[in-house]
């Protein structure tokens, strides 16, 4: 990537693919990403609609037309119209949501923002295919299903419990699971579980790989298992033993078994921080060095330790 900018989001809108980094917006043209817009304020999150990209910056929300790439500010209600934006996402019904540190959470409806949540310490937000909206905060996890908000926290109010109140980020994977990354634990709301009910024991671990290892992306790979993008590298949790749900809830005990497999990529691929699966079931690996695309067959070969001289789908910005 030019300047080795930190990737923020890989977005597919119609037939187009966009890469948003901490300062720039790129569009995939042929086999290269071409910069279309550059911002002075750092970009912290991004989402796509049919006609625009929404960028959450440290100074408010910017809308970028995918036709002209012209930008315009979308001010939030209240005295601070351009706060630090920590979440921008589109829900299952097509509505856009914005989370801001300080003002709270807003939904865009009728060309105006409506406040949905007043919690000030917003760290992230996502929507899942079951029409739920999830908001990560420093005082727990909030979920909106229909008109009702449910809060999960360490105290387990109404039996809705998670092991830590500080929810740092939310990572949905391509299998419909939602991974909740907290300051002292990682848990998963599984797609086949009843998210609307009070989960008694969520599958939970203290960390992935080693203590303090940052988790930035998750993908489910058919026939292999779950793949994690971490600061330690790509880590694969194979389907055998039988998945994440077989782990006990988090305790102070450290499990000595070595279940994770390090997936060694070619040296020029760098260390991916984003994992995205497209409609063709190809895996996109995005890092500061560039973007690589792997078929399921190529990924399985790498996971089995077969060396690769180069990635067949390598894309060089």
UniProtKB/TrEMBL annotation:
<protein>
    <recommendedName>
        <fullName>Two component regulator propeller</fullName>
    </recommendedName>
</protein>
<dbReference type="InterPro" id="IPR015943">
    <property type="entry name" value="WD40/YVTN_repeat-like_dom_sf"/>
</dbReference>
């Amino acid at each position: 990537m030019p300047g080795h900018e930190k990737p923020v989001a890989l977005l597919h809108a119609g037939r187009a693919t966009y890469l948003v980094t901490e300062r720039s917006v790129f569009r995939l043209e042929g086999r290269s990403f071409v910069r279309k817009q550059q911002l002075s304020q750092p970009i912290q999150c991004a989402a796509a609609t049919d006609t625009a990209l929404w960028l959450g910056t440290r100074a408010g929300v910017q809308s970028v037309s995918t036709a002209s790439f012209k930008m315009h500010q979308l001010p939030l209600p209240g005295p601070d119209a351009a706060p630090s934006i920590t979440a921008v996402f589109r829900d299952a019904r097509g509505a856009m949501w914005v989370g801001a540190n300080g003002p709270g959470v807003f939904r865009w409806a009728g060309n105006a923002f409506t406040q949905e949540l007043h919690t000030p310490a917003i760290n992230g937000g996502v929507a899942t295919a079951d029409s739920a909206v999830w908001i990560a905060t420093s005082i727990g996890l909030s979920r909106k299903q229909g008109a009702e908000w449910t809060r999960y926290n360490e105290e387990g109010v109404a039996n809705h419990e998670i092991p830590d109140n500080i929810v740092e980020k939310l990572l949905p994977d391509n299998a419909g699971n939602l991974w909740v990354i907290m300051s002292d634990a990682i848990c998963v709301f599984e797609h086949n579980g009843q998210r609307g009910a009070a989960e008694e024991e969520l599958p939970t671990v203290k960390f992935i790989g080693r203590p303090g290892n940052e988790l930035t992306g998750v993908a489910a790979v058919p026939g292999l298992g779950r793949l994690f993008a971490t600061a330690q590298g790509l880590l694969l949790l194979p389907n055998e033993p039988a998945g994440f749900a077989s782990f006990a809830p988090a305790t102070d005990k450290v499990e000595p078994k070595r279940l994770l497999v390090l997936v060694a990529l070619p040296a020029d691929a760098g260390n991916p921080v984003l994992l995205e699966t497209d409609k063709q079931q190809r895996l996109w690996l995005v890092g500061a060095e560039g973007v690589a695309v792997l078929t399921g067959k190529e990924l399985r070969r790498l996971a089995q330790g077969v060396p690769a001289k180069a990635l067949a789908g390598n894309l060089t910005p």
